[in-house]
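Posting for a labmate who doesn't have an account.
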Amino acid sequence: QVQLVESGGGLVQPGESLTLSCIASRSDLRIHTMAWYRQAPGKQRELVAAITSGVSIKYTDYADSVKGRFTISMDSAKSTVLLQMNNLKTEDTAVYYCNVPQPDGNDYWGQGTQVTVSS
């Protein structure tokens, strides 16, 4: 079993920045892919960004709505993933969840951290 612990959420004004972090409880588990999802009130959970660590390169994927503003990074040795969020907009308000996908579909999820962007 792996527990994912998120931190870094909060209340900010439009245009400001936040960095979310997620640490997996088992550092002995080699994690190759980690992702961030978010869910706004009344909406479905959506993928924000994902990162896969290869032999010598990391692959990233972003939702169109956050490209150019958000950056995902991962330290595989520490089982940690960060989400740097710049130029935040009111529509970024949501609960953000850390995710570690599993081949059998039983993904690991964090408890979620609230991000509120409001003036």
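Reply:
Got it, the structure tokens are right above this. The first strand starts at residue 4 and ends at 7.
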